[in-house]
């Protein structure tokens, strides 16, 4: 996992007494932000705690020294440093004079989204939820790079606060080949979202911090135009969106439904219940619980229905282990009461059916995984990257051997359009009774699906 942080460019703009202490600090690579308040000692905050970095008290001159070396502050009291991802936010007094600064370290972390790469390749819209500071912006910056560079998609980023691609007119290299549209004022974000689709023909739109009803409506409009969305919003889980009227439209909206006496009796619930109003704008939701542990809702529609109709929800948990392998497991979560809506939770017969289907899918996944681990696969690849095959095998915990000699192979894997033209290879494989498996395109998602289906 690589990191590009340009930390020196931030430290060079700080007063010497702070710069000197941080340059030699043992936890320099874990620095999150530097806080400077008038009349107080400067404080550095790290991932493992915070500490004062000098005995000297911050003066007006120190704050003025920094503000003159960075870009102008926007209406949201944010500024940046050219060609970097660092962000400086200010606190003002009643006379609008700056008496406090928060210097946030911006980092482009390469490889952080390997845990969800197969979801990106699925082509579905993805909503990322998490509390402030958990790393949502870092994640979607890396998503933009992977989608534009590695998957060669037309990607446009709607960058309202310049946190995704930096404060310069030239976007930071951390977003790859993705294009960036800057937003002059926060209240115009929904208009720029629509403009991006109408004027620039993107395949994917990336939006950070969807927070208003107009932005949620714009996201729905974009989804209905057939454009893939990747967005973030504040909230720990899907239930937070259900209880937030402004953002409920992202998950299909929530409405009261009045049942007849017979229907309410059949369902065993009250006559007034809550149901999802329409299809969600996003198909997949990712809850960022911890840095290396994410909860995945592979079907938002089903997850929302289960939350509204019962007191449980089945979700997938993905954990990135220290050896860079991904652990997948399914867990049944107890959901909180939706008493804020003044309605009791209920369970339809169809919900029981959904849970049974989930259980069957989990059992099949575990059986396939065990069967694959007992087989030794010697693979001959044709028109496919060996690294792609290795990464897919690593994610499933498979031990494979790649060979350049077809006579040593137990299977052949290649792209369909190329294998179709190689009659000699097909004839040789047929003579040696070596099965050939074809993929429509070179994606890790398709390779993983192939490995999982080999023992069905």
TrEMBL record:
Superkingdom to which the source organism belongs: Eukaryota
Organism: Coscinodiscus wailesii
Occurrences of domain AAA+ ATPase (ranges): 122-261
SUPFAM superfamilies documented for this protein: P-loop containing nucleoside triphosphate hydrolases
Name recorded for this polypeptide: AAA+ ATPase domain-containing protein
Pfam family, any one: Spore_III_AA
Keywords: ATP-binding, Chloroplast, Nucleotide-binding, Plastid
Keyword Oxidoreductase part of the UniProt annotation: no
Single GO molecular function: ATP binding
């Amino acid at each position: 996992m690589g990191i590009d942080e340009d930390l020196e460019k931030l430290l060079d703009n700080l007063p010497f007494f702070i710069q000197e202490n941080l340059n030699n600090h043992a936890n320099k690579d874990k620095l999150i932000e530097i806080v400077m308040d008038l009349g107080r000692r400067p404080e550095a905050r790290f991932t493992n705690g915070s500490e004062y970095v000098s005995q000297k008290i911050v003066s007006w001159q120190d704050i003025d020294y920094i503000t003159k070396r960075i870009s102008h502050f926007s209406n949201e009291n944010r500024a940046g440093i050219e060609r970097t991802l660092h962000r400086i936010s200010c606190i003002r007094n009643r006379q609008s004079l700056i008496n406090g600064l928060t210097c946030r370290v911006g980092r482009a972390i390469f490889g952080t989204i390997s845990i969800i790469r197969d979801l990106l390749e699925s082509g579905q819209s993805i909503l990322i939820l998490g509390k402030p500071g958990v790393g949502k912006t870092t994640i979607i910056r890396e998503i933009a790079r992977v989608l534009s560079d590695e998957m060669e998609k037309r990607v446009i980023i709607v960058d309202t606060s310049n946190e995704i691609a930096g404060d310069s007119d030239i976007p930071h290299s951390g977003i790859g080949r993705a294009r960036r549209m800057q937003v002059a004022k926060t209240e115009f974000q929904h208009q720029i979202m629509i403009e991006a689709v109408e004027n620039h023909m993107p395949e994917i739109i990336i939006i950070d911090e969807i927070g208003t009803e107009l932005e949620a409506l714009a996201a729905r409009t974009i989804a209905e135009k057939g454009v893939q969305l990747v967005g973030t919003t504040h909230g720990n889980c899907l239930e937070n969106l259900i209880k937030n009227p402004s953002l409920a439209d992202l998950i299909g909206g929530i409405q009261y439904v009045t049942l007849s006496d017979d229907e309410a009796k059949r369902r065993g619930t009250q006559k007034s219940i809550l149901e999802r109003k329409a299809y969600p704008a996003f198909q997949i939701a990712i809850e960022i619980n911890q840095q290396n542990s994410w909860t995945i809702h592979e079907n938002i529609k089903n997850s929302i229905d289960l939350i509204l109709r019962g007191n449980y929800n089945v979700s997938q948990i993905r954990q990135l282990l220290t050896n860079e392998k991904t652990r997948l497991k399914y867990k049944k979560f107890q959901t909180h009461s939706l008493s804020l809506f003044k309605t009791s939770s209920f369970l339809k017969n169809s919900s029981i059916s959904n849970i049974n289907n989930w259980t069957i899918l989990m059992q099949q996944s575990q059986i396939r995984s065990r069967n694959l681990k007992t087989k030794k696969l010697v693979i001959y690849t044709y028109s496919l990257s060996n690294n792609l095959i290795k990464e897919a095998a690593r994610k499933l915990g498979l031990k494979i051997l790649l060979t350049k000699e077809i006579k040593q192979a137990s299977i052949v894997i290649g792209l369909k359009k190329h294998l179709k033209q190689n009659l000699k290879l097909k004839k040789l494989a047929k003579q040696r009774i070596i099965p050939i498996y074809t993929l429509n395109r070179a994606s890790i998602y398709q390779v993983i699906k192939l490995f999982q289906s080999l023992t069905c």
